[in-house]
Amino acid sequence: MEIPLSSRQLNAGMLRIAVPHVTPDSNNQQVMALFSEHKTLIGLPVLENSRPLGMINRHIFLSQMSRPFFHELYDQKSCIAFMDKTPLIVEASAGLEYLAERVIETGDKAVTEGFILTDEGHYLGIGLGIDLIKTVSDLQAKQHFQIMQSIEYARVIQESMLSRSRQGIEESLKEWCLYWQPRDCVGGDIYAFQRDENGWLVVIADCTGHGVPGAFMTFIFASALEKALSLAPANEPERLLAIVNRHIKQTLSQLHPSADLNQSNDGCDAIAVYADSVNAQLIWANARMHAFMLGAEDEEVSMLESDRKGLGYTDTPADQQWRRYQRPLQAGDQVMVVTDGVTDQIGGERSIMFGKKRIQSLILQNRTLPMSALSGALLEGLQAWQGKEASRDDMTWFGFRW
Length: 402
Known about the structure:
CATH class of the largest domain: Alpha Beta
Structural class: alpha+beta
Shape: elongated
Number of strands: 17
Strand content: 15-25%
Order of helices and strands: HEEHHEHHEEHEEEHHEEEEEEHEEHHE
Strand order of the largest sheet: 6-17-14-11-12
Number of domains: 2
Radius of gyration: 34 Å
CATH topology of the largest domain: Phosphatase 2c, domain 1
């Protein structure tokens, strides 16, 4: 029974119920009278000098006393004959976490019969196992609600962080598409867009993890990219990736000589693409990202070259250099970048990955469509492939036609 961290300041005393009690001098006829008077009483504490000796369980007591001749034999005898001598006794000041651990150790008895609460050993009342379960459940529900509120706010922050880039794409490009879908409320995929006097830069990254851990990494990546853009021009994507790599490793304390390399192996796959409008050139540096290109005169979809090192990972040197690739752009050329949440999605009759070839085929089949419609065709094909399979990862793609 796990107790939320926020409830550790709460104690067992909050579950206290005031109930009648008896002493060793009380007989079983008096116990029967109390159980008859208090219909909801499941346990009757037995005290001596205000200190608990044991507990009489209602169900056990009534079952025994209903047997033939038991009234005649036991009515006038001490109530300790039917007393449990080892009830769970807990100080009212004990935290709920400690109480829950003791209830688990005691087993079903403490849940069904309840437990005795004391103050420095003196009787205060009893607590019910069902009330403990309900209290813990309510606390967990409140904590879950607070966590979900925090995650929802993180989603707002993440989407706000991305909105400026999306607005820049809308204002700068005519033929483009962008799909960003976290597996959970927030995700580990991120995109960024920046325009300069000679063209524009787009960066797509797939950070380790999804959900909250992935979102944390996107914030680290965004900070790293902002720093990189202050140190290197947009048309040098290979320098941008190198700076981002070092910044991530520095943020995750991987550059310190005493760093524990087994502690964090987080980073991202990323591609930085610069479209040089003046010279009609596509310039990029690629750290393990899937990127496709279909030239206006081509009969098949090719892959943009990529290097095998990701950014920020422990096996990526701090001074790693990514290669600079470039090729001329002609009117009608199409480029599509996708994260591995798309290619690795399980589906189909054999429950295998969607893969790169299906993306290439979809791009080729829909090459004449506007980019927004091509994106729709890709999404439709992916969803048909996925079927009822759950999404494995965040999914992002960005495409444009020159």
